[in-house]
């Protein structure tokens, strides 16, 4: 049955792809069963597999009886291997790019080859698979509708401080990767910068001894200081709470509309933007602008007769949510 499944049939003959392609193949992040039938077929059929660590990838290939040739592609040989692999693609060779775990191009050197392939006008075909960031996110218990993936933080210095400072007001859930020997220092910095936010820390995800620790950043700092982890870790940190809305002042709202119009913004969009800021309807902002003009407090000028006075209604007459929906 395996032989039938892996029967080599050229994609070009089947008309799936008219020219040689770079296939971005997702591989397991721990459990070898977490790989798709399509990924196995691609790894079997391509002419060459470019791997971050050929020894690691060979274990996966051996497990599934795949004997496709391997070549290394890592941060130490990018300069020479990128043009070499592009040359093979131009010659009509299909290449699969894999990382040690998960999807290539995420926190690994694969993105360089992808960028070069796109620039060369050659096809790039994603073959989805496991991903540590999303796996940890969906199991974290934290909001997963909006999130920001930060990968590995800069090791130290000004760049690290600036990156952390830029995240203080980020309302989306944050996802980081970290090595075990740097975890305590990272938790120290996150707790100092972001405060006592909730965090979920995934270790050995999809493996036999998978654990997901949950608590606050200060609690995580103390726990992992006493219990040093092993293996790569994924941190999922709660985003910042939404900033409180300013108190609504009709005169100030009207002035802000006038300022936005003076800067070149369309009146309708200016009123909608101010309505979002204060959580008011656009009708209310329109009234505020009329009151400001009639009261001689500076106005938006030329607002004209209110639509309601003509028996009509203002366009978009509804409460405006903070997101503008």
TrEMBL record:
Residues 22-220 form the Tetrapyrrole methylase domain. InterPro entries: 4pyrrol_Mease (IPR000878), 4pyrrol_Methylase_sf (IPR035996), 4pyrrole_Mease_sub1 (IPR014777), 4pyrrole_Mease_sub2 (IPR014776), rRNA_ssu_MeTfrase_I (IPR008189), SAM_MeTrfase_RsmI_CS (IPR018063). This is Ribosomal RNA small subunit methyltransferase I. The gene is rsmI. GO terms for molecular function: rRNA (cytosine-2'-O-)-methyltransferase activity. It catalyses: cytidine(1402) in 16S rRNA + S-adenosyl-L-methionine = 2'-O-methylcytidine(1402) in 16S rRNA + S-adenosyl-L-homocysteine + H(+). The keyword Acyltransferase does not apply. Catalyzes the 2'-O-methylation of the ribose of cytidine 1402 (C1402) in 16S rRNA. Its main location: cytoplasm. Pfam families: TP_methylase. Residues 295-304 have a biased composition (Gly residues). It is an enzyme of class 2 (transferase). Its EC number is 2.1.1.198. GO terms for cellular component: cytoplasm.
């Amino acid at each position: 049955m395996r032989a039938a499944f892996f029967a080599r049939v050229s994609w070009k003959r089947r008309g799936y792809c008219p020219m040689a392609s770079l296939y971005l193949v997702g591989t397991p992040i721990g459990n070898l069963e977490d790989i798709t039938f399509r990924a196995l077929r691609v790894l079997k059929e391509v002419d060459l597999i470019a791997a971050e660590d050929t020894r690691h990838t060979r274990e996966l290939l051996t497990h599934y009886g795949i004997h496709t040739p391997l070549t290394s592609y890592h941060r130490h040989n990018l300069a020479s291997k990128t043009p070499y692999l592009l040359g093979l693609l131009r010659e009509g060779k299909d290449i699969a790019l894999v990382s040690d775990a998960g999807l290539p191009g995420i926190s690994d050197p694969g993105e360089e080859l992808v960028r070069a392939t796109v620039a060369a006008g050659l096809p790039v075909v994603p073959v989805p698979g496991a991903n540590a960031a999303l796996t940890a996110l969906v199991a974290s218990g934290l909001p997963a509708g909006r999130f920001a993936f930060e990968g590995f933080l800069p090791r130290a210095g000004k760049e690290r401080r600036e990156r952390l400072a830029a995240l203080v007001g980020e309302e989306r859930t944050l996802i980081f990767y970290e090595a075990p020997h740097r975890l305590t220092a990272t938790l120290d910095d996150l707790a100092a910068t972001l405060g006592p936010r909730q965090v979920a820390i995934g270790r050995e995800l999809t493996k036999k001894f998978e654990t997901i620790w949950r608590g606050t950043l200060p609690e995580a700092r103390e726990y992992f200081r006493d219990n040093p982890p092993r293996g790569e870790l994924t941190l999922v940190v709660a985003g910042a709470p939404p900033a409180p809305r300013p108190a609504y002042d009709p005169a100030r709202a009207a002035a802000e509309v006038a300022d936005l119009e003076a800067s070149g913004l369309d009146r309708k969009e200016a009123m909608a933007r101010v309505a979002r800021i204060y959580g008011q309807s656009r009708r209310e902002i329109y009234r505020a602008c009329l009151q400001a003009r009639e009261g001689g407090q500076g106005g938006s000028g030329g607002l004209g007769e209110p639509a309601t006075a003509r028996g009509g209604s203002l366009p978009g007459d509804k409460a405006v949510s903070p997101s503008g929906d």
